[in-house]
Amino acid sequence: MLGAITYCIQGSVQWDGTHIATSMTMLALLCTMFLIPAVPGAGHEVRGNGEMFPLNGPSWSLFFEYIGNILYALFIRRLPTKALAALVALTGAGLAGFALSDVSGYGNIGIGWTLDAVNFGGGALRMLFPFSMGMLLARNFKPFKVRGAFWICTALLVALLSMPYIEGMQPVCRNGIYEAFCIIAVFPVLVLLGASGTTTDSKSTRICKFLGDISYPLYIVHYPFMYLFYAWLIKNGLFTFGQTWQVALCVYAWNILVAYLCLKLYDEPVRKYLAKRFSDRGKKQK
C-alpha cells in the first residue's frame, strides 16, 4: 500500500516520464500483495526499469525466500549434515563465481531484482547460500564466551559497509572479490559472534531489542520513500551531498518512524492475533 500511495504522489510516471494508467498501478499493487513478479516490459511493471515488484523493490528478496521455504519443506530440511555442507559449498562457489566474473555486468552482487535469466539464477544463489549456511551453523553451533559481541559485530559491520567500490575488472572483478569474501567468510563469523554474545547491561539490551524489532519493518518500508527522494533529486537537479544532506537525514528519520509505527500498529497486533487464533484452534483439536 505504501508503494502504491507514494507512486501516485510521485505522479504515476516511469523514470523516463511516461505516465502510467491507474489500472496498471492497481494491478501492480495486487501482484505485489500476492508476490507475483512482473516481467520486464509488462504493463504493470510501472517504473519501467524491469523490477519484479516496482512498487516496492525489496519484495524480490521475499519472493526468493518463499522459494527457499518451499525447498526447505520439500527436501532441504531432510538433508544430512554432510549433504547440507555440500550444498553450502556448491552455492557458495556459485555465488563467488557470479561475483568474480561479474556475470550481471553490474560490477557488484546486487542481482535478483528483475526477472531475467541472469538475475533469477543470481537471486537464487543469493538466497540459497545464506539459507543453507544458516541451517549448517544452527546444526553445529556451540556457543563460546565473547565479551562485547554486540559492539564488536557493530564495529565490524560499519567498517565492512564503509568500504567504497573497488575499481578493476581484470583478471576478475575486484569489487566482486571483496563482496564474495564478506558474504562467504565474514558474515557467517559475525552470525556466530552475535549468537554467542549476551548483553549484560540494560542499555545494550534495549538497543539490541529495538534494532531487532525494527529491522524487517524498516527494510520493507524504506524503498517507497527512497523512490520519492530520487524523484525529488531528479526533478530539482540536486545530485551532491552538500545539496541534499538535510533532506536525506529527514528521509532516514521518517523511514525509522514509519517502520516503528508499522511494527506497533500493524505487525505486532496481527502476529499476536494470529498466534492466539491458531493456538486456540490447536487446543480445540486436541
TrEMBL record:
Stretches that traverse the bilayer: 20-39, 59-76, 83-100, 120-137, 149-166, 178-195, 216-233, 245-266
One Pfam family named in its UniProt record: Acyl_transf_3
GO molecular function, one term: acyltransferase activity, transferring groups other than amino-acyl groups
Acyltransferase domain span: 28-262
Alphabetical keyword list: Acyltransferase, Membrane, Transferase, Transmembrane, Transmembrane helix
PANTHER family in UniProt: ACETYLTRANSFERASE, PUTATIVE (AFU_ORTHOLOGUE AFUA_4G08520)-RELATED
Protein name: Acyltransferase-like protein
Species in which this protein is naturally found: Prevotella heparinolytica
